Prior knowledge:
Keywords: Isomerase, RNA-binding. By secondary structure, the chain is α+β, with helices and mostly antiparallel strands. About 25% of the residues lie in helices and about 25% in strands.
Amino acid sequence: MTGSRGxxxxxxxxxxxxxxxxxxxxxxxxxxxAGRVTVNGEVxxxxxxxxxxxxxxxxxxxxxTAGLESVTFLLYKPAGYVTTARDxxxxxxxxxxxxSIPGLHPVGRLDRDSEGLLLLTTDGQxxxxxxxxxxxxxxxxxxxxxxxxxxxxxxxRRLEEGVELEDGPARxxxxxxxxxxxxxxxxxxxxxxxxxxxxxxxxPVTRLLRYRVGGLWLGDLAPGExxxxxxxxxxxxxxxxxxxxxxxxxxxxxxxxxxx
Length: 260
């Protein structure tokens, strides 16, 4: 995986120094102007932004900021990467491509063959909120099916009414036709659920992409790219009903233009 983007380019360096207790923001700006601060071995200039994985030093001393605040990332997970913390088979792991931050872990699972929106965080409460069934955060997927066959209206209704799986009945909140497949939205996240549901109606999945969780969309990230979530992102993630209608509609149009 390559490439990363932080919100508005990342966190301003003087804010990072202030959070670490090095100095006030104004005094931190003076340290930077004086050439006493380096980022990844290079002398920093005023206006520099940093991401959690950057190495920041003042007069050669490493500034430790991990754990001062929780951080959450949105990653476009490519197919072929596993989301478990350790893999006995030595397969590629999403954590290997993220900043080295103590406590960073994937939120839930996205199976190795699937791609799209995956959250990683150091916030245990956020993980519980997003993964516990009682909270029912929506997860939306774009599925491509064998032979590019589009499920019929009757078959899509079956998904909404519920199909029987080996671990119990499963129901989609919504199921819509798409070119060569379907859009499926769930209120739960059982193992390989979308794949198994579509297989149950006779449409095996050949490619599966998750493009939305709650009120947060994958956007224009490319496979392997990630960005740190802002407080606004986190609010939208947990409160989709409060996302302005025009923002929701624009995200839906962009999603359809890219994957419809």
